[in-house]
Amino acid sequence: MGSLFRSEEMTLCQLFLQSEAAYACVSELGELGLVQFRDLNPDVNAFQRKFVNEVRRCDEMERKLRYLEKEIRRDGIPMLEIPGECPEAPQPREMIDLEATFEKLENELREVNQNAEALKRNYLELTELKHILRKTQVFFDEMADPSREEEQVTLLGEEGLMAGGQALKLGFVAGVILRERIPAFERMLWRACRGNVFLRQAEIDTPLEDPSSSDQVYKSVFIIFFQGDQLKTRVKKICEGFRATLYPCPEAPADRREMAMGVMTRIEDLNTVLGQTQDHRHRVLVAAAKNIKNWFVKVRKIKAIYHTLNLFNLDVTQKCLIAECWVPALDMETIQLALRRGTERSGSSVPPILNRMETLEDPPTYNRNNKFTIAFQNLIYAYGVATYREVNPAPYTIITFPFLFAVMFGDLGHGALMAAFGFWMCYKEKPLQAKKIDSEIWNIFFGGRYIILLMGLFSMYTGLIYNDIFSKSLNIFGSSWQNNYNKTFLAENKLLQLNPDSEDYLQVPYPFGIDPVWQLAEANKIIFMNAYKMKISIIIGVFHMLFGVCLSLWNHIYFKRRISIYVEFIPQIIFLTLLFFYMVLLMFIKWVSYGATPGHFGEEDYVKTSSFCAPSILITFINMMLFKTDENTRPKCDPTMFAGQIGLQKFFVIVALLCVPVMLFGKPYFIMQERKKRALQGQQPLAETAENGTAGGAPVPASHHHDEDISEVFIHQAIHTIEYVLGSISHTASYLRLWALSLAHAQLAEVAWNMLLRKGLMSGGYEGGVFLYVVFAGWAAISISILVLMEGLSAFLHTLRLHWVEFQSKFYAGEGYLFQPFSFEVILDSAGQGEE
After folding, report:
1. Is residue 366 a contact partner of residue 10, using CB atoms and an 8 Å limit?
2. Does the 114-159+168-275 domain belong in CATH 3.30.465.10?
3. pLDDT of the residue at 132
4. How far apart are CA 569 and CA 663, in angstroms?
5. Which of 201-215, 269-283, 457-471, 680-694 has the highest mean pLDDT?
6. HSE-up (13 A, CA, CB side) for residue 655
7. With the C-alpha atoms ordered 434, 435, 437, 442, is the resulting torsion angle positive or negative?
8. Could you say which DSSP state residue 508 is in?
9. How far apart are CA 580 and CA 728, in angstroms?
10. Longest Cα pair distance anywhere in the chain, in angstroms?
11. At 138, is the pLDDT very low, low, confident or very high (cuts 50, 70, 90)?
């Protein structure tokens, strides 16, 4: 759990493996997922590495598996998921068996597919011929009709009808063409043959299957009558150009009938053979579908192992592989055990050697996470990966993130809807994960299910504090206010206020949250809630920023940056405390010192502590910064909130301003002094040792102050000082977004209620019930889509900004890089997502 607060201590190790045992050892490390290997051959081309042939063999196996998978998906055969645990990476000798199996399956499937395609093509031709014989019979009957003699005269001419005492007959070709090509085909025939051909066509009602693409296509039968060989050649070329298929068609009706009977017999035989071919193909694919997921895992594991082995170096004897890797210091024993298991599995007699190495390189950042914390950690990583061993904001974000969100989203009803959705995703976690839904939006929501659950629960809490549920209030404990006006007076006066100094107020506050009577206060409800939420926002913001500055102290102490404590942390905390924390204290002093004076309303002895004399905190703070004192326009009131306030405020401002030059010049001055000492003594300066000191024996990111020009150090420090001083002001104001979004959410909820549901509830009779049903549907849709989803997203983004900018900028550098171990689990997950 300690690594949640600060990243794991990492160590660079050198690993020596015997060539025979290297595969098994890397396989065990892949199952463990705790080792990040470095590339020791960065200048070597990928095609010149030792195990490039094995990687190519794996690529080839993967290609064959993808081909099998495509065929299985095309047939709609379900692929069995891997039961229980994933299979282990097979031994190198098993690669030959896997290759032979995949080769056999691919060849068999390709052969079956080729035979099936040839049979389908033959079947298509016979089917088209069947339709031609059936449709052309009608065309021939029409041409034999005496009424068609005029068309023959047009084609043959009157003299050509009789030649040598015998009747001349028209030549013809018959075939099949795609239906959408018919108009262009007809135009081309007419233009090319100058109207000397006669085209008849009929549509084939049933779609035909294209054997190459398996698509259903619509075709038409056509027959073209013409005279002479020249036209015949021209017609055939046009048919060829339009990819029409021509078929022989006998002239005699008896021959056509005989051919049709033969075609039908052959079609029946083909149907039988095609069915047997498809059954055989289906059996092959069903057998492959049972194991294909298993095979994919095995091949990807083998490929990952050889990819990793390509990062290793060979020693001079070619019998030993040398690797360098980052490992968590706490897991050294676990890694040693895994290496031992791999050596035993390979049957090697030489044990692997794992040595720690000293390095000045920045180690990777590794935070152990579980399914609950990983979502919050990803929010931090989206800003930047923590510098090695830097304070991790994630554990604090688990509480502060949903709380700040809830301050903006506070509504018991909307929070309950959000919490219910988050709870459902958490409760159905395993079934939903098993479905492997590939929707990107769904995966974002599902990945943040615990964040959504906490945001909903916290929103329910703040909704109770605000006493707000769908813009209405709950009167659980009974209001502390009572109405002492009679009905006549109430009817005559629309705007009335209840006086807290009178019997209108019971002098006992509402036990929990806001009194429900404020729901009825149309005149000053917003004024009261604004003042309340505005002050709460500033209080929360100042405490949040103070906490961030305090976390920077933890960083300085851990990294032994002694000078940073003196010239950065102490001036920063003093500056923030004396100005903004003092403003928060003024708010509490105002709440405690001024209020109702029951029974003494208007009396001079009590007026100084009444709300009449309560000063404006904002005006007081502005006057404090400007060293200004306003003239007391209320003689009955004290000019200050407590004795010595003016002098104390001046002292606070002067001390806060003196902190600025300390932050600006302190560190550069110290570095200059240490450089002078180094120049005189010729040794490492203490300041830089303090800056770069190690903790727990682990290397830390080196500071480069001693390599920089002193002017660059001044510029760097000036930027940070200006950013902090101006940021303290702007960041404090930035927390007012808590008030602004809370107000907007409450007002939108109230508008939705008043404009829709209230009108539905006020309608009566049978029609009113129907109207209420329709209105409730609209109100519910607006509540979920706008008030929960859109407002929730808006509050989420504002909360994210408050954490990234206002909170993390006080202590979090985020200049590290992630620990990315060699892990089969991660590799298989990314491969699975890539497929989807």
Report:
1. yes
2. no
3. 85
4. 9
5. 457-471
6. 16
7. negative
8. S
9. 8
10. 144
11. confident
CA dist 28 and 65 (Å) reads 25
- Where helices occur in 35-93 by DSSP H, the ranges are 52-74
pTM of the model: 0.81
| Rg, C-alpha atoms of the chain | 42
718-727 pLDDT, tens digit each: 999 999 999 9
Tokens representing 719 are 């930027």
β partners of residue 18: 320
Residue 696: the pLDDT is 40
- pLDDT tens-digit map of 636-695: 788 888 889 999 999 999 999 999 999 999 888 888 888 888 888 865 544 444 444 343
3-state helix, strand, coil split of the chain in percent (to 5) is 65, 10, 25
| Cα–Cα distances in angstroms (integers) from residue 374 to residues 395, 632, 749, 817, in the given order | 10, 57, 33, 17
- The answer to whether the CB of 541 falls within 8 A of the CB of 584 is no
216: left (phi over 0), alpha (psi -120 to 50) or beta: beta
The angle that helices 394-409 and 737-752 make with each other, rounded to 10 degrees, is: 40
* Cα angle: 657, vertex 658, 663; to 5 degrees: 100
Assign 732 a pLDDT band (cuts: 50, 70, 90).
very high
User: Using an 8 Å Cβ cutoff, are 407 and 383 in contact?
Assistant: no
- Which two three-digit tokens encode residue 73? 């998906």
Domain with CATH 3.30.70.2750 in the chain: 114-159+168-275
Neighbours of 67 (CB within 10 A): 15
